[in-house]
Design brief:
alpha+beta; 558 residues; eight-stranded mixed beta sheet; 46% helix
Length: 558
């Protein structure tokens, strides 16, 4: 049935209520102009995802007639200077309809329209154009970029409709377009990897970087991309601070104007931590939208929550005691701390959200905050945590969400005694149910699993680890996935710019931007693997350095 005014209103109300979505994109970022095909493709993706979730919307053809084109300047892609009978928006919808059905020639589209007069009415067609008019419109009137946007829009619509259980006229291709005929069939070589990585990195970066904005106002001579280019450049060089990096950036950049180091820092300092986090979540949502159209992306998965430390702080922390709070180990050192939630397991290991850790914040607040973000982006099944999150209130909160968890438990007197008994019995594994007190005569029920470590250097109770879980011992093997978050932290810190500043917002931005570069790398690697092999193996075939080098070219460095 055709959409109604009420069903349309429901869709756009739903879009407006999504916490990390701005629509249309031209109003939410200065990097998408109203004639940007990438902006149009982003808008169609946003609307189609919400459109087909409405019970009244069960037709991809009806959506083609209702495409959100009002904010896009189609005339910028019209190569005809003369007046014409058919408007660009009507032709755009017709060609999307053709792509939805996968028809190779205009004749099939015309025959379909002739037999469906009601569809012609919704396309606002007074008369159906002839075959030669359609051919010229597609090949001579539309720009190459607009033709590619038509194909991209149709593919997105098919995927979003199929995901929502709506019938589609053809099976959408979930991976990237097939590789060229001259590709090496025996497996991708380095040249093929780099060629594909370059194309994909360019596409991904154009989708992701517009989520970041400095809100500098109109009339600025230095393009905003130059700031993100400089930040990427700083991540390419070890221990490179903004001032020194900005001087080198002038020589390596292809831009006429690049920011000075102090101006770069000043603009970033103007960003609040909530603004940085909001931009980060928008960028990750865009990244997920890019990789989610492959079959190899797992929207439902296992996430790991952890806290990492910046390098130890050796200066005077007076006035910053709530931010430079110490280390997780019991030492006399101090450091900034950042918490993240990240995909682990078989999924591509994207960092879904990051946040700073301040003195006085409870682990419950941190986990709840990060899970809110993760569940707004993807479907979460299982949560893996380190032993610092073994609080019964954290575990209860996760259970109340309907999620499973696995976390090691710090060994207290009773656990140590049980481990000693297991050692005497030469028993390598043991399970027992336990009730953890929540207060006010309320309890959290969990399962303790004792497991003997292999090749332990100890000869007492320390040979055993104790895990808590609400999902049975079968999920304990998943805890091994948690090591990936530590591996990810090493790469993320490799991408961080150096600074001695105590500014909390600047420090956090450097960490968050490094998380974004890491996530882009892993997303690009997944897309390249799917393009070249049709499968995804967790071990990357695209190096981090290659991705960063390609990113710096895309942002105007080389």
């Amino acid at each position: 049935m055709p959409p109604t005014q009420e069903s349309r209103r429901d869709v756009f109300r739903r879009i407006a209520q999504r916490p990390h979505t701005n629509w249309p994109v031209y109003d939410s970022t200065p990097l998408y102009e109203r004639d940007s095909p990438d902006g149009l493709a982003s808008d169609i993706r946003t609307v189609s995802q919400a459109w087909f979730k409405h019970d009244a919307h069960d037709s991809v053809e009806e959506f083609a007639c209702a495409l959100p084109l009002a904010y896009f300047r189609l005339d910028a892609h019209d190569r005809y200077a003369r007046s014409t009978r058919y408007e660009m928006d009507t032709l755009f919808r017709m060609f999307v309809l053709k792509e939805l059905h996968g028809w190779e020639h205009e004749t099939a589209l015309l025959e379909y329209l002739d037999s469906h007069p009601e569809l012609c009415g919704r396309l606002e067609l007074g008369t159906v154009p002839d075959q030669s008019t359609l051919w010229r419109s597609w090949n001579e009137r539309f720009t190459r970029e607009l033709r590619e946007t038509v194909r991209k829009a149709a593919r997105t619509i098919l995927i979003k409709a199929e995901d929502a259980g709506v019938a589609v006229p053809r099976e959408p291709e979930r991976s990237l377009p097939p590789r060229s005929d001259n590709a090496d069939e025996s497996g991708p070589d380095n040249r093929a990897i780099l060629d594909n990585a370059g194309t994909i990195t360019e596409h991904v970066s154009r989708a992701v970087f517009p989520a970041f904005s400095l809100d500098r106002g109109d009339g600025c001579e230095i393009h905003e991309n130059a700031y993100w280019g400089l930040q990427t450049y700083l991540g390419l060089r070890e221990n490179l601070a903004a001032n020194e990096g900005a001087r080198s950036f002038i020589h390596e950049s292809t831009r006429e104007r690049t920011p000075l180091g102090h101006a770069h820092r000043d603009h970033i300092r103007d960003l609040s931590i909530p603004e940085i986090r909001e931009m980060y979540r928008q960028a990750v949502r865009q990244l997920i939208d890019e990789v989610a159209e492959t079959e190899e992306f797992f929207r439902a998965g296992i996430v790991a929550i952890d806290i990492t430390e910046d390098d130890p702080f050796t200066g005077d922390r007076t006035g910053h005691e709530d931010e430079i709070i110490g280390t997780k180990e019991n030492t006399d050192e101090y450091a900034y701390q950042w918490a993240t939630v990240q995909f682990v397991g078989n999924a591509v290991p994207l960092v879904l959200d990051a946040r700073p850790v301040r003195m006085g914040e409870t682990r419950l607040e941190i986990v709840e905050d990060l899970l809110d973000s993760a569940e707004n982006l993807v479907h979460v099944d299982n949560v893996l945590m380190d032993r610092e999150f073994d609080s019964q209130h954290v575990l209860e909160m996760i259970s109340q969400r309907g999620l499973s968890y696995v976390a090691p438990k710090r060994m207290q007197t009773s656990e140590k005694a049980q481990a000693k008994r297991l050692l005497q019995r030469d028993q390598d594994r043991y399970e027992t149910d336990r009730k953890l007190h929540l207060g006010k005569n309320e309890w959290h029920e969990t399962t303790l699993i004792y497991r003997q470590k292999e090749d332990s250097e100890h000869d007492d109770h320390r040979q055993y680890s104790v895990f808590m879980t609400n999902c049975g011992s079968g999920h304990l093997t998943e805890y091994g996935y948690r090591w990936e978050i530590e591996s990810g932290y090493r790469s993320i810190k490799r991408f961080m710019a150096a600074t001695t500043s105590k500014d909390f917002g600047l420090r956090f931005f450097y960490f968050a931007f490094a998380c974004l570069l890491y996530s882009i790398w892993r997303a690009v690697d997944l897309l390249v693997q799917v393009e070249l092999t049709g499968e995804y193996e967790h071990s990357p075939i695209v190096t981090a350095d290659n991705t960063l080098t390609l990113l710096k070219k895309e942002t105007g460095i080389g």
